[in-house]
């Protein structure tokens, strides 16, 4: 305890602590800003460039607008450079090693957001302050809500991955005057808040020199979280697809066959409208989910056509002749049903089926139109079910492995 007290007394009276008064800081500011002009590049040799170091600190991904192709993020830049005209000896100013001054009181690079979505203006607000060290080092941290353009590829929606860039450029000065020479930290996360729809996979920073301009691009690779879309869009569409096949289970005598088919078809049209509202207007790429939905609508239209034909045939009079095609369809249906129900050996089953077909050929006159519609229901059910299942499996295999 005595050793600690002695150390405090030594620091206080031994000359290591030099209190700084407002008068000291005022004299320092007056001295270093005497003759300073913030419209002139702060370097002694005006033929040399001022080197900038720019890093980005990201708070959050606010929004990814697929329709407007816009990325909204919140964060700030950390811009470092050396002001050769603002230096002082801290030993002459009570060990004052740094100051904070308004950003408009010193020279600063005119950084602008190159791929901004709505506005084109200089970074930073007038109320921002900069950190100024005694060796001339300057740290400027302009805070912004960045709205940038981002090309959206929705081919694998909702398992898509988007690559968006946030590009900053020195607008007025050429490379020989101001050069973005480095990005020490690239993109860093500062109290980052996770987005509920998008997750960040990778980040990168790239420096470019285009003709006489210097720029830095911060790249963010985003991956969509598909759970919401699977539960609220994909699963209902898949269920509706299989419900449409059930139209061939509804008997023609029930009177609800057509209304059921129309209801399922209109449900697909509603879901297509919902998905189209969430996707960008793009003629170059289309999502596999949209193609799948159109395919389901085509199947729904075919179900309507087949149901209409069935009802037309079902209400024909029995004295009208039945074509050989429909007779063959009825016999094929009965043959397949026989194969499913028979549990004998293959040889006995084959003989039984052959004998059954011979009997049916001898009694063609016993086939009626309701038998024809029943055969159509049987074949259409299995054909549409197999096609629908294959299309659904193909969709998930394609979109889940981009």
Q: What about the largest sheet? A: 8 strands, mixed
**What's the rounded overall pLDDT mean?**
82
- The coarse overall form would be rod-shaped
Overall SS class: alpha+beta
Number of strands: 12
Number of helices: 8
Query: What percent of residues adopt helix (DSSP H or I)?
Result: 25-40%
Unreliable residue runs: 1-17, 361-365
What is the CA-based Rg, rounded?
38 Å
Note the run of SSEs as H and E. HHEEEEEEEEEEEEHHHHHH
Query: Which range does the strand content fall in?
Result: 15-25%
Reconstruct the topology from this structure.
Layout lengths: L1 H12 L8 H11 L17 E16 L4 E13 L15 E5 L8 E3 L15 E5 L3 E4 L2 E7 L11 E10 L7 E5 L4 E7 L4 E13 L2 E12 L2 H19 L11 H22 L9 H27 L9 H18 L4 H17 L6 H31 L3
Parallel strand pairs: 1-9, 1-10
Antiparallel strand pairs: 1-2, 2-6, 2-7, 3-5, 4-8, 5-6, 8-12, 11-12
Helix pairs in contact: 3-4, 3-5, 3-8, 4-5, 5-8, 6-7, 6-8
Report what the structure shows.
This protein is α+β, with helices and mostly antiparallel strands. 39% of the residues lie in helices and 25% in strands. It is built from 8 helices and 12 strands. The strands form 2 sheets. Strands 1, 2, 3, 5, 6, 7, 9 and 10 form an 8-stranded mixed β-sheet that branches. Strands 4-8-12-11 form a 4-stranded antiparallel β-sheet, with no helix packed on it. A hairpin with a 3-residue loop joins strand 5 and strand 6. Helix 3 (227-245) packs parallel to helix 5 (288-314) and helix 4 (257-278) runs antiparallel to helix 5 (288-314). The longest helix has 31 residues, at 369-399. The two termini are 67 Å apart.
């Amino acid at each position: 305890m005595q050793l600690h007290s002695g150390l405090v007394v030594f620091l206080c009276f031994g000359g290591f602590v030099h209190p700084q008064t407002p008068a000291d800081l005022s004299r320092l500011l007056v001295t270093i800003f005497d003759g300073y002009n913030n419209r002139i590049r702060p370097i002694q040799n005006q033929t040399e460039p001022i080197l900038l170091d720019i890093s980005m600190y990201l708070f959050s991904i606010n929004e990814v607008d697929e329709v407007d192709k816009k990325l909204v993020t919140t964060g700030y830049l950390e811009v470092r450079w050396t002001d050769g005209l603002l230096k002082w000896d801290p030993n002459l100013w009570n060990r004052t090693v740094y100051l904070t001054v308004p950003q408009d009181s010193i020279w600063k690079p005119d950084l602008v957001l190159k791929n901004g979505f709505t506005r084109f203006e200089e970074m930073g607000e007038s109320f921002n302050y900069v950190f100024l060290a005694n060796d001339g080092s300057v740290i400027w941290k302009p805070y912004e809500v960045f709205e940038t353009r981002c090309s959206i590829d929705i081919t694998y929606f909702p398992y898509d991955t988007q690559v968006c860039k946030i590009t900053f450029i020195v607008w007025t000065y050429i490379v020989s005057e101001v050069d973005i020479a480095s990005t020490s930290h690239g993109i860093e996360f500062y109290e980052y808040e996770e987005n509920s729809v998008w997750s960040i996979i990778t980040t990168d920073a790239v420096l470019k020199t285009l003709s006489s301009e210097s720029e830095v691009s911060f790249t963010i690779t985003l991956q969509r979280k598909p759970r919401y879309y699977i539960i609220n869009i994909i699963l209902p569409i898949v269920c509706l697809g299989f419900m449409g096949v059930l139209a061939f289970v509804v008997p023609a005598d029930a009177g609800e066959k057509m209304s059921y088919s129309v209801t399922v078809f209109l449900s697909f049209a509603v879901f297509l409208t919902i998905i189209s509202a969430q996707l960008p207007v793009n003629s170059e790429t289309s999502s596999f989910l949209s193609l799948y939905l159109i395919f389901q609508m085509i199947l729904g239209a075919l179900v309507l056509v087949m149901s209409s034909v069935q009802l037309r045939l079902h209400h024909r009079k029995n004295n009208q002749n039945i074509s050989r095609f429909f007779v063959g369809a009825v016999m094929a249906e009965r043959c397949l049903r026989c194969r499913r129900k028979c549990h004998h050996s293959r040889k006995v089953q084959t003989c039984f089926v052959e004998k059954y077909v011979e009997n049916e050929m001898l009694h063609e006159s016993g086939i009626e139109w309701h038998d024809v519609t029943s055969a159509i229901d049987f074949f259409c059910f299995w054909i549409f079910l197999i096609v629908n299942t294959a299309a659904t499996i193909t969709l998930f295999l394609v979109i889940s492995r981009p």
